[in-house]
């Protein structure tokens, strides 16, 4: 699919439409891609990822709306039962790839640090051509258990620049803040 580091077994079922003779390289695209598994470098793996695609290609540039559902994943050490994104906006240019929109992950565990019922919110992912990923996500968190301390939920801001990751978090249990 033209994304460096992306791999795994896949099944592509896409339809293309447009007048390819009239406007060379301009056409619509719709359909689905199934990865089983989906692999991205050695840091991300989902046993199954299904993506619905609707968009347009103009030469080497593309704009898609993407709906995705993934199962049994691991991303940078975070175990994920399921992940869903219904309306991600995907743009590919010679300068790189960007993905923006709402997402939700359920059944999260980060090693022995703890577990979270869910994380949900907007995601902004950028991968410059020849560069490293930049990710920002502002997430609402569900019930949790962190180092055997249970709580009701909270907020998490994730900022990733290359291999550097920062987590800013606020966790709440009842009427008290556990971590801020």
Query: Low-confidence runs (pLDDT<50, min 5 residues)?
Result: none
Oligomeric composition of the shown chains? single chain
Q: Count the DSSP helices.
A: 0
Query: Structural class, judged by helices and strands?
Result: mainly beta
Strand content: over 45%
Order of H and E elements: EEEEEEEEEEEEEEE
Shape, please?
elongated
Q: Specify the biggest β-sheet.
A: 15 strands, antiparallel
- Mean pLDDT comes to 89
Radius of gyration: 18 Å
Number-wise, the strands total: 15
**Terminal Cα separation, in Å?**
41 Å
Estimated helix fraction: under 10%
Brief descriptors of the model:
mainly beta; 15-stranded antiparallel beta sheet; 15 strands; single chain; 0% helix; 180 residues
Structure description:
- With 180 residues, the chain is an all-beta fold.
- It has strands at 6-7, 10-17, 26-35, 38-40, 44-58, 61-75, 78-93, 96-110, 114-128, 134-141, 144-146, 149-151, 153-161, 164-173, 176-179.
- It has a 15-stranded antiparallel β-sheet that branches.
- The radius of gyration is 18 Å and the shape is elongated.
- The mean pLDDT is 89.
Layout of SSEs?
Blueprint lengths: L5 E2 L2 E8 L8 E10 L2 E3 L3 E15 L2 E15 L2 E16 L2 E15 L3 E15 L5 E8 L2 E3 L2 E3 L1 E9 L2 E10 L2 E4 L1
Antiparallel strand pairs: 1-4, 2-3, 3-5, 4-5, 5-6, 6-7, 7-8, 8-9, 9-10, 9-11, 10-13, 11-12, 13-14, 14-15
């Amino acid at each position: 699919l033209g994304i460096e580091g992306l791999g795994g077994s896949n099944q592509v079922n896409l339809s293309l439409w447009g007048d390819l003779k009239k406007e060379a390289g301009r056409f619509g695209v719709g359909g689905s891609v199934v990865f089983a598994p989906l692999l991205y470098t050695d840091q991300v793996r989902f046993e199954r990822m299904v993506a619905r695609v609707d968009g347009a290609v103009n030469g080497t540039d593309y704009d898609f709306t993407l709906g995705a559902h993934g199962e049994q994943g691991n991303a940078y050490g975070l175990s994920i039962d399921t992940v869903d994104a219904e309306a991600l906006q995907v743009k590919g240019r010679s300068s790189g790839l960007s993905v923006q929109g709402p997402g939700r992950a359920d059944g999260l565990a980060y090693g022995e640090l703890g577990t979270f019922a869910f994380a949900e919110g907007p995601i902004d992912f950028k991968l410059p051509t020849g560069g490293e990923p930049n990710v920002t996500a502002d997430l609402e968190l569900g019930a949790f258990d962190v180092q055997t301390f249970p709580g009701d939920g909270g907020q998490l801001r994730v900022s990733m620049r290359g291999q550097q990751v920062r987590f800013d978090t606020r966790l709440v249990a009842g009427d008290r803040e556990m971590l801020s």
